[in-house]
From TrEMBL:
Iron recorded as keyword: no
Membrane topology qualifier: Single-pass membrane protein
Compartment(s) of residence: Membrane
Encoding gene per record: Ephb2
Domain Fibronectin type-III positions: 43-69
GO biological process: axon guidance
Any one Gene Ontology molecular-function term assigned to this protein's record: ATP binding
PANTHER family tied to this protein: EPH RECEPTOR A5, EPHRIN TYPE-B RECEPTOR 2
Keyword set, alphabetical order: ATP-binding, Membrane, Nucleotide-binding, Receptor, Repeat, Transmembrane, Transmembrane helix
Cross-referenced PROSITE patterns: FN3
Protein's UniProt name: EPHB2 protein
Provenance organism: Turnix velox
GO cellular component, one term: dendrite
CDD domains: FN3 (cd00063)
Principal location listed in the UniProt entry: membrane
Length: 69
């Protein structure tokens, strides 16, 4: 067509030149409602610095956010 080509969003690819959409790479996903120009994402990594504290009546867990959200 008359429109110029654009790069695929992050973590996606095409299998042919001039494709009309990009598919997510293995291990990455896009929700059904997400537009095709939205980057593909994956599950977050594990939480960091997990600390547990136990007493007679309760368990308390603390952690830092995952490195990869």
């Amino acid at each position: 067509g008359d429109e110029g080509c654009v790069h695929c969003p992050i973590n996606s690819r095409t299998t042919s030149e001039g494709a009309t959409n990009c598919v997510c790479r293995n291990g990455y996903y896009r929700a059904d409602a997400d537009p095709v120009d939205m980057p593909c994402t994956t599950i977050p990594s594990a939480p960091q610095a997990v600390i547990s504290s136990v007493n007679e009546t309760s368990l308390m867990l603390e952690w830092s956010p995952p490195r990869d959200l």
